[in-house]
Amino acid sequence: MNVTFDFAGNNFVVIGASSGMGKQTTLELVESGANVLAIARNVERLDELKKNNPAKIFTASLDVMNATADDWADVLDDFKTAYGKIDGGVYSAGIWGLTPLNGFDAELAHKIFDTSFWGMVNFIQMATKKKFSNPKSSFVLMSSISGDYPSKSLFAYSSAKAAVQAAMKSFSKEIIKNGHRINSVAPAIVATEMTDSGMQTAVAGEEMISRHLLGLGTAADITGMILFLLSNRAVWITGQNFFVDGGYISGSYV
Ligand SMILES: NC(=O)c1ccc[n+]([C@@H]2O[C@H](COP(=O)([O-])OP(=O)(O)OC[C@H]3O[C@@H](n4cnc5c(N)ncnc54)[C@H](OP(=O)(O)O)[C@@H]3O)[C@@H](O)[C@H]2O)c1
Predict the structure, then answer these.
(1) Overall pTM surpassing 0.90 (yes/no)
(2) Which residue's CA is minimally distant from atom 19 of ligand 1?
(3) Angle between helices 119-127 and 69-83 (to 10 degrees)
(4) What are the extents of the domains in the chain?
(5) Which residue out of 63, 108, 142 has the highest number of ligand 1 atoms within 8 Å of its CB and is therefore the one to mutate?
(6) Is the pLDDT of residue 9 over 60?
(7) Per CATH, which fold does 11-245 belong to?
(8) Closest CA to 211 of 185, 247, 242, 187
């Protein structure tokens, strides 16, 4: 039996669509029949992404650190005019950086929080309005195992990812008035640009990597859970965080 997701006729938003897990999510949603509003800052990368399926990928350049309510409303309005209301969204934008307690860069710490947390709050607030989303829409947020198991010198990133989970649980009780669901996914280490950019060497030594019983992840190892949570196979799931960790948590304890 070959069971695949069928999102024909559905519309989704993906934030952080120009790279890594957001890009993979966009490609898989489109492959499964959905139209996608793909959001990130880098216009060249968004243009490249659009080439994969120009009819189904609608791009918008937005910096989630500075985006106002009007900015979010404008991009959702433009997409609605072209394709209709959304059926949900995936918030995957995030940046990473070390913030050791003694001597951390406060500006960097705020940027980390603004990108993973406040940008997400602003998006969810606008996207869950009746004006922009169909009833029973599904939203998926990107947390991290570091939200529950923070590494040394990673308090800003870890706190932002823990805050994502707490907000998600709180939002689930409010947005249910429109029938909407919301969940988060917490990956362990996944090979993307984020990990290439020094995370692996700075935080994840050989010992930490070896705790991933199934090896380090790829973006496609995470998107199965994301698409499942967006789909109608997950209609009884809301307010939950899901670890997709290659056995990392299990492998951390003897
Ligand atoms: N990779 C891992 O091991 C791992 C593990 C656990 C959780 N996560 C989380 O998973 C999510 C995706 O990570 P990834 O590994 O796929 O990272 P990635 O490849 O670096 O992609 C991050 C995405 O976020 C976008 N972004 C960053 N800052 C933005 C801003 N100010 N405004 C709009 N878009 C912005 C980037 O696009 P532009 O640069 O074009 O704006 C890019 O599309 C992040 O939230 C990350 O914290 C990652």
Answers:
(1) yes
(2) 20
(3) 50
(4) 11-245
(5) 142
(6) yes
(7) Rossmann fold (3.40.50)
(8) 247
